[in-house]
Write a structure and sequence with these properties.
With about 300 residues, this protein is of the alpha/beta class. It contains eleven helices and eight strands. It has a single domain, classed as 3-Layer(aba) Sandwich (Arginase, Chain A), CATH 3.40.800.20.
Length: about 300
C-alpha cells in the first residue's frame, strides 16, 4: 500500500510570486484521488519535526535564528524566500513528512512525500528555496534509531543535491548519488559519493543508460538497505530551468527503473518530489503524478 504525506501548509504560506509552480502541492493529491491511484486513507498529515531530529542534522545557531526570524538579508536572498514563521513551520512539517515517509517505506516498501527534496539546505544555512534538508533529517533518524545501516540517496533532480552531499561528506553509512545538469544551479558543486554531470540537451535513452549502469554499480559496491529517492521532474525538455531534454515518457521510465530496482533488491524507498518548473502547470503536475502511477504499478 502506498502512503502519501501531504498537508495544506505545503502550499499556503508561499509568497505570491512563487505560487504558480507551488500550486502543484495542492493539485497533485487532488489528481491522485481523482484517478483512484490513492484513497483518502492513504494520505497522512505530518506534524512539525522535533527539535531533536532537526538538530541531529542542522547546527543549533542556524536553527535558532531560523525560528527567531533573525536570518540576514543575505541569507534570505540565498534562500529565495522572504523569511517568515509560516515557512519555517512548513519546512518542519515537510521534514517530519519525510521521516514518516521512511517509516512507512519500511512497512510497505514505498512511501511518497508530495513535497520534500529540499536538498540545497546545508547544516548551517539554507539555499535555493530550501530551509531544512528533509532527506538528511529522515536519513539521520533511521541511522540513529538503528532502522537502517547503509542508506543510498538517489538524487535525480536536475540540480545537484549540494546540501545533502555536504552534510553526509564524512558519514560512511550514507552514499550520495546525484545525476544533474553540469551547467545548472548550483554554480559551485559539492562532492557527492557519485556525481554524474549531464550535458545540456541529454535525451531519454542516454540518460536511462547512465542511470541504470550507475545504480547497479553503486548497489554492488555499497549494498544499501534503504533508499531515499529525489524524483524532481525538472529534467523534462519543457522545464524552463532544466536544460535537459527528457520526454514525459522518459521521466516515467526513469521512475519505473528506480522503483523496479528497489523492488528487485527488496529495498524500501522513500520518495521526495523535488523540482519542476515547466511553463504549463499541467506538465509539472502530470509528471509528478506519473511518479505515483509508476510506484503504484510496482509496489501495489
Amino acid at each position: 500500500m502506498l502512503t502519501v504525506a501531504w498537508r495544506p501548509e505545503y502550499v499556503q504560506p508561499l509568497p505570491v510570486g512563487h505560487r504558480f509552480p507551488m500550486l502543484k502541492y495542492e493539485l497533485i493529491p487532488e489528481q491522485l484521488l481523482r484517478e483512484g491511484i490513492i484513497s483518502e486513507s492513504q494520505i497522512f498529515s505530518p506534524e512539525p519535526a522535533s527539535d531533536e531530529d532537526i538538530l541531529a542534522v542542522h547546527q543549533s545557531d542556524y536553527v535558532r535564528r531560523l525560528e527567531e526570524l533573525k536570518l540576514t538579508r543575505s541569507e534570505e536572498r540565498r534562500i529565495g524566500f522572504p523569511h517568515n514563521e509560516r515557512l519555517v513551520f512548513r519546512e518542519k512539517c515537510i521534514s517530519q513528512g519525510s521521516i514518516e515517509n521512511a517509516l512507512n517505506a519500511l512497512k510497505y516498501g514505498c512511501s511518497l512525500n508530495v513535497a520534500g527534496g529540499t536538498h540545497h539546505a546545508y547544516a548551517d544555512r539554507g539555499e535555493g528555496f530550501c530551509l531544512l534538508n528533509d532527506i538528511a533529517i529522515a536519513a539521520s533518524y533511521l541511522l540513529r534509531h538503528q532502522l537502517a545501516k547503509r542508506i543510498l540517496v538517489v538524487d535525480l533532480d536536475v540540480h545537484q543535491g549540494n546540501g545533502t552531499a555536504a552534510i553526509f561528506r564524512n558519514v560512511p553509512e550514507v552514499y550520495t548519488f546525484s545525476m544533474h545538469g553540469a551547467n545548472n544551479y548550483p554554480l559551485h558543486k559539492e562532492l557527492s559519493d557519485c556525481d554524474i554531470a549531464l550535458p545540456d540537451g541529454i535525451t531519454d535513452e542516454p540518460y536511462l543508460k547512465l542511470l541504470d549502469h550507475h545504480l547497479n554499480e553503486i548497489s554492488d559496491k555499497f549494498q544499501p538497505d534503504f533508499i531515499f529517492y529525489q524524483s524532481g521532474v525538472d529534467v523534462l525538455a519543457t522545464d524552463k530551468l532544466g536544460r535537459l531534454a527528457l520526454t514525459e515518457q522518459g521521466c516515467a521510465w526513469r521512475d519505473r527503473l528506480v522503483f523496479e530496482f528497489c523492488k528487485r533488491h527488496n529495498l524500501p524507498v522513500a520518495v521526495s518530489m523535488g523540482g519542476g518548473y515547466s511553463p504549463k502547470l499541467a506538465h509539472i503536475v502530470n509528471a509528478h503524478v506519473t511518479t505515483y502511477r509508476e510506484a503504484a504499478c510496482v509496489f501495489d
